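Margin note: ligand = pyridoxal-5'-phosphate.
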Amino acid sequence: MLLGTQRVNAEGHLEIGGCDAIDLVKEFGTPLYVMDEETIRENCRNYKAVFEARYPKNDISFASKAFLNMAICKVVEQEGLSLDVASAGELYTAIRAGFPLDRVLLHGNNKSLFELEMAMDFGVGCIVVDNLLELRQLKTLAEKKGKTQKILLRVTPGIDPHTHRRISTGQEDTKFGLSVANGDALEAITEALEFAPHLKITGIHCHIGSQLLDAHTHEQAIDIMVGFMRTIADATGWMPEDLDIGGGLGIRYTEDQHPPSYEEFGDTLIGALRAALEKYDVPEPRLLQEPGRALVGETGTTLYTVGVIKRVNIPQDPGTRTYVTIDGGMSDNPRPQLYDAVYEVLVANRMGEAKDQEVRIAGKHCETDILIQSTKIGHIETGDILAVQSTGAYNYVMASNYNRFTKPACVFVKDGEADLVSRRETLDDVVRLDIIPERLA
Ligand SMILES: Cc1ncc(COP(=O)(O)O)c(C=O)c1O
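Resulting structure:
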């Protein structure tokens, strides 16, 4: 499974964006997040083009929680997408990167007053309101500042997307948004409309879950959301102009996963939207989306150096297991621990060799941080370079300093050039926030 610009070069090495992975390791060390810039750009363009062709009244935001630093803000801006942020830190990154803030949406289920005020002061295009407390706080702030803030209201369509429970958000039993079914969402909308001119509600939002390998739940969500638009219009006389259906499209982590292509996803979504608009007699809204994983997930590869290789006896067949240990683990990729995530791995300096042994890939943390439970690879030695694929989403951004590990560097590769976009942390970075109080000195 080679993804994006991944190739095998004449030396039998993995190449990404025209860069030899082994040269990248020599220059930047390991662990290393390698992001395939051309494929990110292509994904942004293709996703946009698919929806432009099927439903021109639309806007695509990149969900920055999936992958964020200042460099990606530049790429997203250049490709004409908007940006979804969900914290002061994500917003600050966009601000520092000079991202046009009228193209930013602020999310969050428990936004602080600081975050709300920051968003308003910097002129964030839209705040996606999650709850009544936030709605009222926002109205007070807008009033105080003499501003009109555009908002969407996040609602819960009440459907279970059947993905990992930790990334399911559309069901009734959730911390996100307000329920359509129990009337909370309609009540909040009625209140929001009364808060004009301080707040200008433009529509409704939902995000049903992530890593969805078909579009069935999106279809159901669209039907419920458009039905709810009709309910809102009948109850309040106001028809939402924006319908935001969040993100959620899955990617290939392993060869046996087959998410819909952007085209298939677009056909299903727009088919469902047009059918629902007719069914509920609703005029065309602007369709907003916030894909994260689908734009960057397959564009990331993490390179590690193999350290200890250990064979242990196990009671089940074949009686032994080989542990291949890498120089990273749960601090640079917590997804196996969080979501039982699965990954494919390549031996970057021995591409094309027969995969004749089954191994377990382990991290080096003081936990049983197994990165890959079981995978087939060829010959492997200490010092070899492992390339874990599809680590572009929810990896770099989820990195921690557990065991006081330094966070890895991140490079963008394109046309044979590699640029550092986030440097590796140093040991000094690890202690930079520590303070020894006088009495302990
Ligand atoms: C509100 C919202 N929008 C968009 C996304 C992006 O989801 P994905 O990366 O699955 O496309 C998320 C992910 O958690 C989210 O919470």
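The first strand starts at residue 7 and ends at 8.
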